[in-house]
Amino acid sequence: MNTLHDLLAAVADGGDPGPFALVRREGVDHVDLFTGPVGVAERLADLPLPGGGPGPRTLALVPYRQIAERGFACVDDGVPLEYLTVTGHAELPLADLLAALPAGPVVTDDAAFDVDDDEYARIVERVLTGEIGRGEGANFVIHRTLHATVRGVPLGAALAALGRLLRDERGAYWTFLVHTGTRILVGASPERHVSVDDGLVMMNPISGTFRHTGTTADRDGLLRFLHDPKEVEELYMVLDEELKMMAGVAEQGGQVVGPYLKEMAHLAHTEYLLAGRGTRDVREVLRETMFAPTVTGSPMQNACRVIARHERTGRRYYSGVLALLGRDAEGRQTVDAPILIRTAEISPTGRLRVSVGATLVRHSTAAGEVAETHAKAAGVLAALGLGPQAAGAGPYPPVRWADDPEVRAVLAARNAPLARFWLDQRAPGAAVLPGAVGRRALVVDGEDTFTGMLAHQLRALGLAVDVRPWHVGGDDDGYDLVVVGPGPGDPGALDEPKMAALRGLLAGRLDAGRPTLAVCLGHQLLSGLLGLALHRRAAPYQGLQRHVSLFGVPRRVGFYSTFTARSATDRVGSPYGPVELARDPRDGSVHALRGATFAGVQFHPESVLSRDGMAVLAELLGQLLARPALTAHGDAEHG
């Protein structure tokens, strides 16, 4: 069934028109109608993407449980990876579609959240104290789901809800309805997760939520929101996490553009855009970017563990993606994938689910995060008759605070303290250290893919770099430098396999006198081997930017840590020779250390928060690589 008239007639008669999707993408005045058969795939790699002329090929509904493809934890609810093979495609003028869609009210019964406000508040407190406060990560998203029953024909109700979203919501990246025969998804997602077109990979992290109920946001309230440290830091943290993903799917990593203001009917968000060139199969891009930190947390692998510990049920399609795969005019692969948020799932029997989550960070309050879940669900709930519509239409065209000079100035000022490495176009060879050319580095990943960003920076400095997970065996003899990288967890838990393995690697490097750099968790373990005492901070340093003195030089750097080494003096002896420390004068926290063949930093030089990160790396590498380069057998070359 390839025409809108036939489709709507079948629904009006109480029949099933067969699988279809209606999709309006941001910035266009038409809606795409896709039709075709539906299949089920086991893995993302199994999604069909045949050749041929330009156009869409496959529309995939990717559930959250696919995160298991990356080896990450999840509550497995068995929800399938369904896909529609596009055999019919028509572009419908928006006005014609709106005139044709059913206009009657959507009526539901028995609406209630599976986790009530009080219990959600208790979960928030447990995550803040037991996870962020214990060093498990910087931020986590915990979801709750509203359940209800739709009266009447479910597909008719979904089409009516789509009409309301198309009329009343604004700022959506995709507004859509997908009917597979086994389920209906209808929503208005504000957020592109990932797209690939003409070899350009783009991601679009959105974070920070300003709630309002008027036709336009209150300007003074909006400016207060834009200055709020919690909201600013929350966006920085998801920016860092998506830069980690870009490091894996774009050859030179991602370049940051923005920030911008995204205005919607019930709320406003702040957002960045990331772009980079890549050549990977788009199904691999989807796999390696499962799923956005804005709906999971960071670091990603541990965020999935935390989610599994605190959520009662599987997420179904919430926080997964829709993914439209296709080909361009030259036959190259394309993908466009919005995140499945602000979305309702309706079963053929009328069971309705709307899932929503709040991002929990060190500044969070239980009451504030409860309120945020209600605000985020407001748009789709209003379209389903479960909440008030946004206030009636105001002036036309609507007021756009994104065009206000003061709003633009406040947003632009957010970039002033950030690392230019990620903000500016990088000319090849511009940052190369002469002593790094021809040298090899191994970065050992402690379950935090900040290591991907670190590898890009080391390559920009001239090194050839390999990245290896901590649990993968292999020797390090042929490397001029080993970087023991960051990761979550308690560095004092020395019987935990990851801590034991990283500590053993560090001890071997120290004993052999081979150049070693340790970052964050690696720095904490190195500090322990050098005899320094480790402490848990009273307040976590998660996503925190600070000015510190590093060996007499002022630097602005970003921290993601809960533990720290401390010392009462700037120099200490160790089994591996004298160690110079850069300490906080207030409490003795060790921000960095260096010895004859090793160095460590508690902060993340690779983070977008580390404005001076590249300068710090260049200085430390200048010291560590002063020795002759190694041969493939681990022996020093002599001129």
From TrEMBL:
<dbReference type="InterPro" id="IPR029062">
    <property type="entry name" value="Class_I_gatase-like"/>
</dbReference>
<dbReference type="InterPro" id="IPR019999">
    <property type="entry name" value="Anth_synth_I-like"/>
</dbReference>
<dbReference type="Pfam" id="PF00117">
    <property type="entry name" value="GATase"/>
</dbReference>
<dbReference type="GO" id="GO:0004049">
    <property type="term" value="F:anthranilate synthase activity"/>
</dbReference>
<keyword id="KW-0315">Glutamine amidotransferase</keyword>
<feature type="domain" description="Chorismate-utilising enzyme C-terminal">
    <location>
        <begin position="117"/>
        <end position="376"/>
    </location>
</feature>
<protein>
    <recommendedName>
        <fullName>anthranilate synthase</fullName>
        <ecNumber>4.1.3.27</ecNumber>
    </recommendedName>
</protein>
<dbReference type="InterPro" id="IPR006221">
    <property type="entry name" value="TrpG/PapA_dom"/>
</dbReference>
<dbReference type="InterPro" id="IPR015890">
    <property type="entry name" value="Chorismate_C"/>
</dbReference>
<feature type="domain" description="Glutamine amidotransferase">
    <location>
        <begin position="442"/>
        <end position="619"/>
    </location>
</feature>
<dbReference type="Pfam" id="PF00425">
    <property type="entry name" value="Chorismate_bind"/>
</dbReference>
<dbReference type="InterPro" id="IPR017926">
    <property type="entry name" value="GATASE"/>
</dbReference>
<dbReference type="InterPro" id="IPR005801">
    <property type="entry name" value="ADC_synthase"/>
</dbReference>
<keyword id="KW-0456">Lyase</keyword>
<dbReference type="GO" id="GO:0000162">
    <property type="term" value="P:L-tryptophan biosynthetic process"/>
</dbReference>
